[in-house]
Design goal:
Largest interface: A-B, 75 and 66 residues
CATH topology of the largest domain in chain B: Helicase, Ruva Protein, domain 3
Helix content of chain A: 55-70%
Radius of gyration of chain B: 33 Å
CATH class of the largest domain in chain B: Mainly Alpha
Largest sheet of chain A: 6 strands, antiparallel
Shape of chain B: rod-shaped
Number of strands of chain B: 0
Order of helices and strands of chain B: HHHHHHH
Number of strands of chain A: 10
CATH architecture of the largest domain in chain B: Orthogonal Bundle
Distance between the termini of chain A: 49 Å
Oligomer: heterodimer
Distance between the termini of chain B: 105 Å
Strand content of chain B: under 5%
Strand content of chain A: 5-15%
Largest sheet of chain B: none
Number of domains of chain B: 2
Number of domains of chain A: 4
Structural class of chain A: alpha+beta
Order of helices and strands of chain A: HHHHHHHHHHHHHHHHHHHEEEEEEEEEEH
Number of helices of chain B: 7
């Protein structure tokens, strides 16, 4: 038995069990017989085991340096450290599709275990099996990682050095796929709901899944930002690169859906809108993969592989076709009824989802605009951070204003408490803006500070309202606070997420406005001021690390200590890769890059220092957002277990 | 130690990426700010401030030089536009078809907002249609009592 053989057998088994699951779901649907649903659930177990087996086979090949299959021959090196070998599985196209398929099978399995409604179950499973079948088919027929190599080499080039430079690269893609694949579950529920004509209950049933996908996607985006900060060597965390955008579009649509879903849950309205949002969010994950894998768009992240592009485009069109043909049926059948007072929580929720949808539209248009212009006029244009930054600032401002007010407002109206809180919030906004301007801040920074103060007051006002509601039931203030924190988990979690977003916005504003970036050449032993910071270059060192050469500068930074920026030389790359040294601080991050050095005698080195305020707070904000999501999602398990225990009793 | 340096020298010479011996110029924050709005012409989606490709380093050097000569930011950008075309700018100039891009947020808000408004107007109209008049309610109550 070789890894190649095992892998191919596993892929065929996975394909067969997935197809079987799809057929059983279809039979269950047409025959209206729940026994077939049970059988399809078993097929989900076996298809997951097959995917796991294929995954294990590829890891087996990577960890034992088996070059007899195409994937290892192209992307693996015996010299890589073990963790890099393990993560090489998702460092290139075929392996990342295998990871995707494995996660899809995992989600199908979990979704199958949590299905309650036998009217919808066949369609939910059928949709998930359909998506899963696509990935197995791609691996079998277009991008098979286990294709045998006739004359196996004894050494390969290893994965892209950019991916070897930081352990985050082992984590970020995994989170991204968990998020992307997670959206397939709400999508499957939505399709099933539309097929079964159960237009109302699915939004509540998929909330948990939507939040799980949202959590992973958020984690992936933050992890990607952190990776780009620590690795790409320019001291930034977000570059509006097409592939970053491709991960941001489904995130925006998912958030828009989360907010309108609340309106549907409460008022039974916006049924078609919610269906459209979920369909588009799922389609956006496929669209993103199409962008990355087809070479249509240039990006640092892109794996250019021609054959897969058209296949993903076809799948994208299929998803959109299914989604929109169902949508047109729903639109002709559903007639939502109701007057809506827009000065209310639902009004603000709709406002938020309006802005999120607009943001998604802007990102899509901005990313594709160079292609559109070239097709229309033949001219070449570029769209990058200066455009996106200037457009997102006003949209973000509106969003931050809505975010603070929304949860305070009761459903259906504005009450005295919310009005009073809003006036305090607006005063906080005005006062802190005035103070910031007085202290010499620019208008943008002052607005950022003001919006943070506004949202901070909002969090307290909201908590005050929550605790007041519990005071009637609980004895004492502390008991009420405790009851609010532990019982109103959805509210508390949402507030944590909102606070995290406000903090992230503040960190972005400061790090964008006050970043200083300068470059200077120092002799060894010399002390010089770079970007206002006196640096001393102590030593310059070279080291053979086996799979790469490293040149290391030892630099003294006052208040920080010694920092060691490096340049790495990989045999596969024709230019050195900088590995910056980062010192995180509560106020400023110091970020040192070794730009160049004296290759003849090692007497001088060119250093670039980036001093950026508040970047650490961006990562903290990410942590708060994730904790908030976890706070809402986690009792999902606990409650369900209790529920099923009660049923069993 | 010597051997490693020799190896590295060979290595870098083989790569021949930048001419050895000459250290890169010192660059002020202003240089990086301007470079961040220009595209690195040979990279895949990186700005001239981010990238360490030879062309980007050369662009940063030129920006530093032009700043020293007292040229304005606009003039520096114009210089690069003349050499590479408008493609070099990461914010497309506001004219012609590019207005479509710059107005995208407004277009998005208007289109989605209009859709929302129509949806709500429709839902309200239906509610009014379906609402029972006082007389109908009384008639129904009477029937309930009778039955």
């Amino acid at each position: 038995m070789t890894p190649g053989l095992l892998g191919n057998v596993a892929l065929v088994l996975g394909f067969v069990f997935t197809a079987l699951g799809l057929v059983l779901s279809a039979v269950a649907w047409w025959a209206k017989d729940a026994r077939y649903v049970e059988a399809a659930k078993r097929a989900a177990v076996f298809s997951f085991l097959a995917a796991l087996l294929a995954f294990a086979a590829l890891e087996w090949a990577l960890l034992t340096d088996d070059f007899s299959i195409a994937y290892t021959a192209k992307n693996h090196s015996t010299k890589s450290p073990t963790w890099v070998k393990f993560a090489t599985l998702w460092a290139a196209l075929e392996g990342s599709i295998l990871l995707w398929a494995t996660f899809q099978a995992l989600y199908t399995l979990f979704a199958a275990r949590r299905l309650r409604d036998y009217w919808m179950a066949p369609a939910v499973l059928g949709t998930l099996f359909g998506v899963q079948l696509f990935f197995f088919a791609v691996m079998l027929f277009v991008a098979n990682p286990f294709t045998p190599v006739p004359n196996p080499p004894t050494e390969g080039p290893g994965p892209n050095p950019l991916l070897q430079n930081h352990w985050m690269m082992a984590v970020h893609p995994v989170l991204m796929y968990l998020g992307f694949v997670g959206i397939s579950v709400p999508f499957a529920y939505a399709v099933a709901a539309m097929l079964a004509r159960r237009y109302q209950s699915w939004v509540a049933e998929t909330r948990w899944w939507t939040l799980v996908a949202f959590g992973f996607l958020t984690a992936a985006i933050f992890a990607g930002g952190w990776w780009s900060y620590e690795v790409l060597g320019w001291g930034g965390y977000w570059a509006w690169d097409p592939v970053e955008n491709a991960s941001f579009i489904p995130w925006l649509l998912l958030v828009a859906f989360l907010h309108t879903a609340l309106v549907q849950e409460r008022r039974g309205m916006f049924k078609t809108w919610n269906f459209a949002y979920v369909t588009l969010a799922f389609a956006a994950t496929v669209f993103g993969t199409f962008l990355t894998r087809s070479g249509v768009i240039q990006s640092v992240h892109a794996f250019v592989e021609g054959a897969v592009g058209p296949v993903f485009l076809g799948f994208l069109l299929a998803v959109l076709f299914v989604g929109f043909s169902l949508l047109s049926r729903v639109a002709s059948e559903v007639r939502d009824v109701g007057g809506l007072n827009l000065v209310s929580r639902e009004g603000l929720l709709l406002g938020a989802s309006l802005v999120f949808a607009t943001m998604a539209f802007v990102v899509v248009l901005g990313t594709l605009f160079p292609l559109i212009v070239e097709a229309a006029t033949g001219d070449k244009v570029s769209v990058g951070s200066p455009f996106f930054d200037s457009v997102f600032a006003p949209l973000g401002t509106v969003l931050l204003l809505l975010m603070g007010a929304g949860p305070l407002f009761p459903w259906g109206r504005l009450d005295a408490y919310a009005a009073r809180a809003l006036s305090v919030m607006l005063s906080a906004l005005a006062l802190s803006m005035a103070l910031s301007l007085f202290l010499g801040a620019t208008f943008g920074v002052a607005l950022g500070v003001g919006l943070f103060a506004y949202n901070l007051v909002a969090v307290f006002a909201q908590a005050g309202r929550g605790v007041a509601a519990w005071r009637k039931k609980a004895r004492g203030v502390l008991a009420a606070v405790f009851a609010y924190l532990t019982r109103a988990r959805r509210q508390v979690g949402a507030q944590l997420v909102h606070f995290g977003v406000a903090l992230a916005a503040l960190a972005i504003v400061f790090s964008q406005a006050y970043r200083v970036d300068a470059q200077k050449t120092l002799e060894v032993g010399e002390r010089a001021v770079v970007a206002g910071v006196p640096l001393t270059l102590h030593r310059l060192d070279a080291r053979d690390e086996g799979f790469r050469y490293a040149v290391i500068a030892e630099v003294e930074v006052p208040g920080v200590g010694r920092m060691y920026p490096r340049l790495h030389y990989y045999p596969t790359m024709n230019s050195p890769l900088a590995a910056p040294s980062v010192h995180y601080g509560l106020y400023n991050d110091d970020y040192l890059i070794l730009q160049a050095f004296d290759t003849e005698q090692g007497r001088w080195a060119t250093l670039r220092l980036v001093r950026t305020p508040m970047v650490l707070w961006l990562w903290i904000a990410g942590g708060i957002i994730l904790f908030g999501v976890f706070y809402i999602v986690f009792p999902g398990f606990a409650l369900r277990r209790r529920e099923s225990a009660e049923v069993a009793a | 130690m010597k051997r490693v340096w020799a190896l590295l020298l060979l290595f870098t010479l083989a790569l021949a990426q930048t001419p050895t011996g000459e250290p890169p110029p010192d660059l002020s924050p202003e240089v990086f700010r301007i470079a961040s709005e220009l595209r690195c012409p040979v990279c895949q989606g990186e700005s001239a401030a981010e990238s360490n490709a030879g062309v980007s380093q050369e662009m940063r050097r030129q920006i530093a030089e032009m700043l020293k000569e007292g040229k304005s930011e606009e003039a520096i950008k114009q210089y690069f536009v003349e050499r590479y075309g408008e493609w070099i700018l990461y914010a497309p100039p506001k004219r012609g078809i590019n207005w479509l891009l710059w107005l995208a947020p407004a277009i998005g808000l208007l289109v989605f907002g209009f859709g929302l408004w129509r949806y709500l107007a429709e839902a309200r109209r239906r509610e009014a249609e379906l609402a029972l008049s006082e007389e109908e309610i009384r008639a129904l109550e009477r029937r309930l009592e009778e039955e």
